[in-house]
Amino acid sequence: MSTKNFSAARLVGVAFLFLWLAGLNAQAADKTLKLEAQLVLGSNDATTNGKPVSPQIEKKLKRLPLKWQHYSVVNEQQFTLAKDESKEVNLSDECQITVTSLGNERVKLTLQGNGQSVGNITQELKKGHVLVAGGSAGNTIVVLRQMD
């Protein structure tokens, strides 16, 4: 086998390897997301109805410019989303959200209060990160996170 043929074969093999790895990376970027949405109530009263938020979420909420010292989960819903899929989730009679997966771990959260759109947020939502949205009700917060 000549050196020219060997180099060309090696070059073709390396090109196929890169194309295969690029395909795997694209598939990983558009994976199905496992999400959890929580309706959280903020309060300065240590005794609250509902279970306390997890220590990780409490730590993140306390870094935000919010005026409450304590946070409890009023309702939580778990769901999955494929790329370009949307789901409507009712967190209470007054609070609904619509979450859309945009691919590459980006989501769009639309928040509704009493059937009226309150606003929307588009954000990358990697594991360990949270998306926090506040509505028109003073002390309620929606927390969206990607589950393991």
Give an overview in words.
It is a single chain. It is built from two helices and nine strands, in the order H-E-E-H-E-E-E-E-E-E-E. It has helices at 3-29, 55-62; strands spanning 33-43, 51-52, 70-81, 86-90, 95-103, 106-113, 116-124, 130-134, 140-146. The chain has two domains: 1-30; 32-146, no CATH class. It has 148 residues and is an alpha+beta fold. The termini are far apart. Helices cover 24% and strands 46% of the residues. It is globular and about 40 Å long. Strand 4 and strand 5 form a beta hairpin. It has a five-stranded antiparallel sheet, covered by helices on one side. It has a four-stranded antiparallel sheet with strand order 4-5-6-7, with no helix packed on it.
Q: How is the secondary structure organized here?
A:
Elements: H1 3-29, E1 33-43, E2 51-52, H2 55-62, E3 70-81, E4 86-90, E5 95-103, E6 106-113, E7 116-124, E8 130-134, E9 140-146
Antiparallel strand pairs: 1-3, 1-9, 2-3, 4-5, 5-6, 6-7, 8-9
> Unreliable runs, pLDDT <50, ≥5 residues?
11-28
Portion of residues within helices: 10-25%
**Biggest sheet statistics:** 5 strands, antiparallel
Instruction: State the end-to-end CA separation.
Output: 51 Å
Number of folding domains? Answer: 2
Tell me the radius of gyration.
22 Å
Mean pLDDT: 83
The number of helical runs is 2
Name the helix and strand elements from N-terminus to C-terminus, one letter apiece: HEEHEEEEEEE
Structural class: alpha+beta
Strand order of the largest sheet: 2-3-1-9-8
Range of strand content: over 45%
Shape: globular
Overall number of strands:
9
